[in-house]
Design goal:
With 266 residues, the protein is mainly α. The chain is built from 12 helices and no strands. Helix 2 crosses helix 7, helix 4 packs antiparallel against helix 7 and helix 4 runs parallel beside helix 8.
Length: 266
């Protein structure tokens, strides 16, 4: 099996992986006066802005939802989870290039590098989303047991993100335009995903095109759980499930086939 031998190597180097995650987290705030407190202050500021500006000042409301905080929850549910997707894919596409010296000097399973990217992103996301969850509890808008349905959606999103990120990461070593193109694509992708606007705001012809946007179903699932307090439409997740499997397989195949050549290109 392709993945079995790779991940056996990862397990043997688990100390290296966890140490790298810890070092990166610490180095981010090493010379900062408030240190790791910034991981709390930044998302807290964003949640406060969304709540005060959109709920209180602009009085924004979601159609069919009476809660004062519904629109700010809708925004946070989309923006925070999109941020996780963007962080994983953006960092994964450059992970081999950024660690060129490490790859050339040390012998270790190269697959560790994308895993470090995922773990770092998940640590950041856990802190941010933990604060958001605390806000839901404080505001009396916590959805209850249906909240647990976030975890399969989150797992699928992470797998899709790293699968796509690995494909981009390998290709970016050989064709540096890939990274530049994806950066532009990501901006259009964000605005083509219903994060800051409801789906109903789109004209019907454009709304029908959302079936070709795999992240639209993922973000909609988060919003359905957190805003409406009900289970998402699992059938709408089938296309991204298939795409996730394809991306992960393609990423692993590309990595295994080209990992030896990457050293020369780097």
């Amino acid at each position: 099996m392709i993945s079995l031998s790779m991940f056996r190597g990862v397990w043997r180097y688990r100390g290296f992986v966890l140490g790298s995650v810890k070092r990166e987290f610490q180095s981010k705030y090493r010379n900062s006066l408030f240190g790791a407190l910034w991981t709390i202050l930044n998302p807290l500021a964003m949640i406060t802005v969304y709540t005060v500006i959109f709920s209180e000042v602009m009085g924004s409301r979601l159609q069919g939802v009476n809660s004062t905080f519904a629109y700010s929850i809708y925004l946070c549910a989309g923006a925070l989870t999109w941020g996780l997707f963007a962080e994983i894919t953006t960092r994964a596409q450059t992970v081999f290039i950024e660690n060129a010296n490490l790859i050339k000097k040390l012998q270790f399973p190269r697959i560790c590098l994308p895993i470090i990217v995922v773990l770092n992103a998940c640590v950041n996301f856990a802190i941010i989303f933990g604060l958001f969850t605390a806000f839901l509890v404080w505001s009396g808008t916590f959805p209850g047991a249906v909240y647990l349905l976030l975890f399969p959606v989150l797992a699928l999103q992470i797998l899709f993100s790293i699968g796509l990120g690995m494909v981009l990461g390998v290709l970016n070593v050989f064709f540096r335009d890939v990274g530049q193109f994806f950066g532009i694509l990501l901006q259009f992708w964000f605005w083509f995903t219903p994060i800051v606007y409801p789906v109903t705001a789109l004209p019907k012809p454009i709304r029908e095109l959302l079936v070709f946007n795999p992240m639209a179903a993922v973000i909609a699932s988060y919003q359905t759980i957190l805003v409406h307090g009900r289970a998402p439409d699992w059938a709408s997740m089938l296309p991204i499930l298939v795409l996730t499997v394809l991306c992960c397989l393609m990423g692993l195949l590309l990595f295994r086939k080209r990992s030896g050549e990457m050293v020369d290109e780097l």
